[in-house]
Amino acid sequence: MSALIVSKSLPEPVGASPQGAAWQQLLRWHENGQQLAFVYSRSLGGLVQTGQGKLGQLSLDAATIEAGSSRLFIVLAGATYEAGPQLFFTPNLLSRFHVNGVAVRLANHDWLFLSDESLPAIGMEHLTKRIEP
Length: 133
Description:
Oligomer: single chain
Largest sheet: 7 strands, antiparallel
Strand order of the largest sheet: 4-3-2-1-7-6-5
Number of helices: 2
Shape: globular
């Protein structure tokens, strides 16, 4: 007889329901007024918006991210949610790291990622190769 081992650190499957762990995390962040880092990427390219803000409005149909004096309005109807780490790269593509958070795949194929984690600032000396004479 084989046993199924499930780890709590595994992400939810892509397409998890809004009632899953990812949606519950979004609700907690909204209720607590948590400061979040976000990445919004268009499916066809041309726009990658990053920043920090709070979830101002959150429903199954739409959300707003309030970032200073700006608001990003996101249509959530038809979206799928995934809780767990996402892979990001440093600007020079030489290093990579995982950030825990919630990924939202929107019905128009755009992608939104929200996280309450932050990484220490990386100095330029670590991002560019030094040229010696």
